[in-house]
Amino acid sequence: MSIIEWIAGLFFLAGGFFIVVGGIGMIRMPDLYTRMHAASVAETFGTILVITGLMLLSGWSLATFKLFAVMVFLLFTGPVAAYAIANTASLGGLQPQVTKGDQ
Predict the structure, then answer these.
(1) Of 20, 57, 66, 88, which has the maximum CB count within 10 A?
(2) Range of 56's domain?
(3) Dist. CA 25–CA 71, nearest whole Å
């Protein structure tokens, strides 16, 4: 295995870690706003790490450009979608859950 394959593997592991943590956050968090935050931040960063690993493995080719285009698209659409969901929930009257320590 070359050094590029090892580095790509590290990107895959780090990306997988963030994706799993985002999934656990979706289960463990108490309300829509915190679940959405856990999912949008962790999943966006994890996906970018995985795509970066794929870009390293593909070398300089058309596939690298396409992966970069997908990565930029996800970088912009993930946070915008999270904002749209939170804004719609807020306009619909959904209030964040308040715990004892927040009062």
Answers:
(1) 57
(2) 3-91
(3) 23
100 in any annotated domain: no
Say whether 71 sits in a helix, a strand or coil: helix
Contact 82, 51 (CB under 8 A): no
Query: How many domains does the chain divide into?
Result: 1
Write down the pTM of the prediction.
Answer: 0.83
* Residue among 54, 55, 30, 25 nearest 41 (CA): 25
Q: Is residue 97 part of a domain?
A: no
Q: Which of these, 14, 22, 26, lies nearest to 43 by C-alpha position? A: 22
Asked if residue 58 lies in contact with residue 64, where contact means CB atoms within 8 angstroms, the answer is: yes
Q: Which amino acid is at 16?
A: G
